[in-house]
Amino acid sequence: MARWVGALVIALACICGSARADCADFSDISGWKLIDSHTIVLYRGSCAAAILQVPWCWIFPTSRIQLLKTYMCPWDRIVVDGTVCVVTEITNL
Known about the structure:
Layout: H1 2-19, E1 24-25, E2 31-36, E3 39-44, E4 47-53, E5 65-67, E6 71-72, E7 77-80, E8 83-86, E9 89-92
Antiparallel strand pairs: 1-6, 2-3, 3-4, 4-9, 5-7, 7-8
């Protein structure tokens, strides 16, 4: 029984650790740049901070992007041109 509980704790730690690995604090983001119609790079000053994938919303060079949270993880939401959109992937740079 103890081995099973230990294995479960380790498995949960691995799952939770990997699920939070792509989360990031975006409290000091100063701008963004379009990579393609579903991908943007967020900037801190002149330094790239993260890449966000937004597959179900179209993003244009003139789009207005609003972060709804300062600490974001995959499956959190942003607003693109007034539409709430799901961020499926965050890659810290």
